[in-house]
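Box S2. Input/output pair 1.
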Amino acid sequence: MKRGYQEASRGIWRNNPILLPLALLSVATATAIFSYIAYKEATEVGPQYHKFPPPVAERLRTAIYYTDVKLNPVKAIDAYSEAIKLATELHMHPYSDEVMGIRLQVSKCLEMAGLVPAAIQVLEKTRADAYHWVRTRMETEAFKNGESDYFFARGPSAEKGELAAGPMKVDPAIAETYEKMKEAEIYEYGQVEKTLAKVVGMSIKLAELYKSDYIQDDQKAEEALEFAVQLSLGEVQRRHQAKLPIGGGNWMTLTEIGTALSELGQHYASQGKLDLSLPLYLRAFDLINANEGGTPSCKQVTLMYNISACIGNPALDGVSPSSDPGVSRAEAIEATRKWAQGAIERAAKVEPSEESVECDYSCAAAKVMLGQLAVFHNKPEEALKYYYEGKDIYDRIEALSDAEDVSRLIKDLEKKKK
């Protein structure tokens, strides 16, 4: 019998010298693919849905498929809507990370499909609902005082303490209810902080959408960014008064707050309102530098260059900084030099793993700024040195338009030298 199998096996190989190896290879490949899919499902895909009840998770899988795999906004939105409806029926917290994530995914899907006005409409509604809920919750004395489990922390009054002086057994059911109430109260407090941070993030995203080529509404973008900054600074003040950490926890980190300020600063700078952008950049730099413990980062480099540009561009044009009329032109020029030089020095200390095109771009721009200052001080050789260094970086990161601008500066300066 065994011999018969061996003969048959050899016969198969002889009769199918090409097809059989291909068939075996196909089986092995299919097995590997399915094993990989199972692994990804278990380690990456599955955990994304484990916080959702099964009915909600099932609709979310469909929605994500029609968002990230095979874009179909109609089918995706239907699935997202069903997921939100099921989440409500299953009593999921309407402002939990999970439910808010679903609502934000709706806007993302519409944006990916090029339906930016619809994406804005959804995001505006989500932001308005979230902000209304946050304001309602923060009107309580607990949030004004910065307490998380305030209801339970107060306890009974001293006058009624005598009533409980005797020994008393605690009903386990009451104790369990108490613990659940306490957990719910603490969870609610945490969600208020998280949701407020999300409102800031949604405002920044709305500004991005309003400034996009689809909409081009700078006024709406500015309003959204100003709202984000006002919320951030208002919460910073509340936390300071309540003796809470300014950043971190469920609330935004100092870097995230600084980023919100920087976004508004960039918007003002793009409109030539440098007197408005400068204080925002300075505050953002302080926050981010403090949060990163003085460790050099690309965000710091970019902000330092932006600060130098806000001071230097008006000064080179002979205009006194509007934010501080008492500063002389010479003082402004020197401040510009220090900030630009600081940006270059800090860029050199950024860890290689943290380097980015943004970092290189800011370093190049800072070198060009130093070149312009050298021209102002009638030092053409020094200016050319900085210009060439800046142009080399622009060429390396393929910032062609900026490289061409520097080439013109070099050409003009070399003409004047002759």
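Box S3. Input/output pair 2.
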Amino acid sequence: IVESVRLDKQLAAQEYVLQRSRKKYVQACQNAEKLSKDPRSFQHTPASREAEELHRNVVEETRKIQVHYQHSKHRLASDFMSLEQARQERIKMTMERIVGLHRDQGQY
């Protein structure tokens, strides 16, 4: 459960970084567009290239975290189910042992 909460927080933080990166990229493109009369050349300014590269890197990092998140969630669910099955098996064995002890003592 702790691992699940940690993964949720990590994904939320990365999504926030992605949103900030997207805003910076759009802002840089808009600023460059204001400086340039030719709307086709606004993406070729150093600031917009830097913002675009930063945004591209953040998008890639977000994808990696999302994939890790999905795999980890499945692994955690599988681990939890294994633990739950083991717990149920231990309870069953304990109950059988208790019943066996009572039978041996002639109480049933």
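Caption for Box S3: The two ends are 41 Å apart (CA to CA). The mean pLDDT is 79.
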